[in-house]
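Researcher: We're teaching a course module on how sequence relates to structure. For the next exercise, students receive a sequence and then see the predicted structure as tokens, so they can try to spot secondary structure elements on their own. Here is the exercise chain.
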Amino acid sequence: MEADVSSRHLSFLETGRARPSADMIARLGDALQLPLSARNQMLNVAGFATRYPARAWSAAEMAPIRAAMDHMLDRHAPYPAIAIDRLWNAVRMNATARFLFAQVGVAEGGSLLDLMMSDHLPGVVENWPAVAHHTALRLRTESAAQGGVAALDRVADHLAAVPGAPQQPTGPVVPTIYRTGPLRLSLIATIAQFGTPEDLMLDDLRIELYFPADTATADILNAPENMLT
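Model: And here is the predicted structure for the students to work with:
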């Protein structure tokens, strides 16, 4: 009903008795809220050219996007902020995020999926079992939305096997508690995306803005002598 297609015709499309038009694929993509990459795949399978391009990050048309992202990340300091793509590669970090991720060997261009498969995080994330559990759920949700992504599923399975059952919730969200040496930061995150994307890179790009989850973390990050930035 959402796509204004009869159940009979939809059944014919599902069983291959009828072939969809490009317009029908667009209508089904809108109704199912599919990612642009999945819509391109549907078009290809049906014999049509892809509709949505994947522009280079350095392209002139992307200049306003780069400026907006840099503004968000840099102005978020002294709190950490990072931009990642669909496979969790770090596209851009602000100064605070660069410091924190450097402690686990990740810089701009690095893979957070590889990080999650490594032995680094259990040693620096105090509540790693809870964080691993919720990250596995997020990865599976993202994979399902894209029609199944093996790289995401593999890491989700790895994280789901982390021992230690999630504890009874003690707050509205589960923070990520980083501890490295004497530094302890409890952080919560929000996720931002660009609206009305018509490009694969923008459809996949997510900006994660981290905020203090307690006053001790806020004091550390807001201190005038804060060396993280």
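Model: If you want an answer key for the exercise: The mean pLDDT is 91. The longest helix spans residues 128-145.
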